[in-house]
Amino acid sequence: MRRRAFVAGMAAMMTSPVAAEAQQAGQVPRVGFLANTRSPGTEAFQRGLRELGYVEGQNIIVEWRLAEGRLERLPDLAADLVRLKVDVIVAPAPPYVQAARKATAAIPIIFGLVPDPVTMGLVTSLARPGGNLSGLANNPVEVHGKRVELLKQAIPGLGRVAILTTGGGDDEVREVERAATSLGIQRDMVTVARSDEIDDAFTLMKAKAFGGVIEMSRPLIYAHRQRIAELAVQAGLPMICSARESVEAGCLLYYGASFTDILRRLAQYVDKILKGAKPADLPVEQPTKFEFVINLKTAKALGLTIPPSLLARADQVIE
C-alpha cells in the first residue's frame, strides 16, 4: 500500500506544473556568451536572436560571462561555460576566442571580429573551417592602412601620429606603420594596458603634440570608447577609430565594418548550430559592407575643416 502511494505521489509530481516546467527548461538550448562588458554589440546579438524567433528565458537561455575589464578572468569564465555544458559558446573577439578554445575542443565556438582566422590558426580554411570553430571575420588587414590614408586626407598637413593600442605588434599595427611610412608620416606607439592608464595616455599625446591618433581594434579600447572619444577632443587630437560605435561617441572618423552588424549576424550561426549544423561545415563569412563616417560636430570642436571631397565620400556625416 505504501509502495502504491509512493508511486502515485511521484506520478502526481511529474504531471505537476513545476515538473512540467523543469522538463521544458531541460529542452531549452543554452548559449554561452563570453565578452568584456555589455555593449551595443551584445545588444545587437540579442536583436539577432529575436529576429530569428528566440526569446531569452523562454525558448533560449543565454549565459553571460563578462570580464568587466579584467581580461585575466577569461580562462575561468570560459571554463565555467564548459562546466555548464552550454550548447554553443559565442566569443566575439580574439581574446575571448582564445580563452574559449583553450577551455574546450568539443563545444561549438562562434567567433567574430577576427581579422584573419586562418593565420590565427582558428580554422583550416574559410570555406571549410574544420574543428569546432567558425564565425565571422572582421576588417581585413588592408582596412587599417586605409584608415591612415583617410586621416591624412582629413588633415593634409599631418606629419606625426600616435598609434593607440594595448601592447604588442601584430599584422594590423604593421599595416598602419607601412601606410604611415608610405605617406611620410612619423608614428609612435602609445600603449594602454589597463583602463586606468587611458587618461595618462592622452595627457602624453597632447604633451607630445601629435597631429592625430590612429586607434587599434582592441577589447579594452572598445569598452572605453566614450571616454576615449571625449579625451581625444579635450586634447585637441583628431582620431580615426576602430569601431563604428566610437564615431557616434564623438570620435572624428571611422572606416570599416560595423561591429554591431557582425555581432547581430553571429546569432545566425548560433541558430544553425542549434538546428544541428557543425562548425566544421559552416564557412567563415567576411564583412561585405564597409562604412566611412565623419563626425562633423567633432571636427568643429577641433577647429578642423574637412575637405569637401572627403565629405562627399562619406556614407554618413554626423552633425
Outline of this structure?
The protein is an alpha/beta fold and 319 residues long. It has helices at 2-14, 17-27, 40-51, 74-83, 94-103, 142-154, 171-182, 198-207, 219-223, 225-234, 244-249, 259-274, 296-301, 308-313; strands at residues 30-35, 61-66, 88-91, 109-114, 133-137, 160-165, 186-191, 212-215, 239-241, 253-256, 291-295, 316-318.
Essential attributes:
elongated, alpha/beta, Rossmann fold, single chain, 5-stranded parallel sheet, 7-stranded mixed sheet, 319 residues
Q: Could you name the CATH topology of the largest domain?
A: Rossmann fold
Shape: elongated
**CATH domain class of the largest domain:** Alpha Beta
The largest pleated sheet is described as: 7 strands, mixed
Report the CATH superfamily of the largest domain.
Response regulator
Note down, in words, how this protein is organized.
By secondary structure, the chain is an alpha/beta fold. It folds into two domains: 29-138 and 260-281, 3-Layer(aba) Sandwich (Rossmann fold); 142-256 and 291-318, 3-Layer(aba) Sandwich (Rossmann fold), CATH 3.40.50. Helix content is 44%, strand content 18%. It is built from 14 helices and twelve strands. It has helices at 2-14, 17-27, 40-51, 74-83, 94-103, 142-154, 171-182, 198-207, 219-223, 225-234, 244-249, 259-274, 296-301, 308-313, and strands spanning 30-35, 61-66, 88-91, 109-114, 133-137, 160-165, 186-191, 212-215, 239-241, 253-256, 291-295, 316-318. It has a seven-stranded mixed β-sheet with strand order 7-6-8-9-10-11-12. A five-stranded parallel β-sheet has the order 2-1-3-4-5, sandwiched between helices. Helix 3 (40-51) packs across helix 12 (259-274) and helix 4 crosses helix 5. Mean pLDDT is 89; it is low at 1-25.
